[in-house]
Amino acid sequence: MDEVAAEKAALRERMRRLREDISPIERTARSAEVERRLFDLPELAEARTFLVFASFGSEVPTAAIAARLAGAGRRVLLPFVRGRDMEAADMGPPGSLVATAYGPREPAERVAVDPGGIDAVVAPGLAFGRDGYRVGYGGGYFDRYLARMSSKAVRVGIAFHEQLLDSVPHSSRDEPLHYVVTDRETVDCRPGMPRPLPGQ
User: Fold this and answer.
1) CA–CA distance from 82 to each of 77, 87, 106, 111, 114 (Å)?
2) Which pLDDT tens digit goes with each residue over 11-68?
3) CB 80 within 8 A of CB 89
4) Domains, the chain, ranges and CATH?
5) Dist CA 63 CA 123 (whole Å)
6) How many CB atoms lie within 10 A of CB 198?
7) Which of 49, 45, 27 is nearest to 158 (CA)?
8) CB of 196 within 8 A of CB of 184?
9) How far, in Å, CA of 156 to CA of 84, rounded?
10) What are the backbone angles phi and psi of residue 155, rounded to the nearest 5°?
């Protein structure tokens, strides 16, 4: 294991514990604030097709986010894993997701869409840096998928504020995000602007 991988592994364990220490009642209230800030992002107003991760465990829940997007007439895609790759397919009707062995639920109908047609992505992670880099769960699936998307697609990570750090270990294979939204602030991670948005 190289130095970056070792640093990521240690950070994952620490962030899992931090996130799991948030009580269910507090998690619900703080998740609502994350959702509010997410939908306040002006860059998402014109996006029509969204890739949203299916949350599980102690993550910021995304079911309400996906339902709100679908209710507004947006196309909502969810990830699914095929071998060593991640793809995305339409979320499908309520109650149609299927369980997986690795955690998040996946669409029952797995017809992969063209990553180039996605306008915005809501990305998961265990830790996020103010420079836009994230530490995920270690498989590299999301980073490889982000690399296949259009450069115009808006990339947003969501998390509880404890998961936001000044920086996280990363390598040349990692793909940065444009924004990180927590329950306390919205950080513009684009070069030259690693700061909270005005009024946020």
Assistant:
1) 15, 7, 11, 11, 15
2) 999 999 999 999 999 999 999 999 999 999 999 999 999 999 999 999 999 999 999 9
3) yes
4) 3-190 (3.40.50.10420)
5) 14
6) 7
7) 27
8) no
9) 23
10) -110, 120
Q: Residue 197 pLDDT more than 90? A: no
Q: Which regions of the chain does DSSP assign to beta strands (E)?
A: 49-52, 75-82, 85-90, 120-123, 127-129, 134-135, 154-158, 164-165, 179-181, 186-188, 195-196
* Confidence at residue 128, expressed as pLDDT on a 0 to 100 scale: 98
User: CB under 8 Å to 198, separation ≥6 — which residues?
Assistant: none
Beta-bridge partner residues of 82: 85
Q: What φ, ψ does residue 154 adopt, rounded to 5°?
A: -80, 130
Please give the Cα distance from 163 to 17 (Å, whole number): 11
How many residues comprise the chain?
200
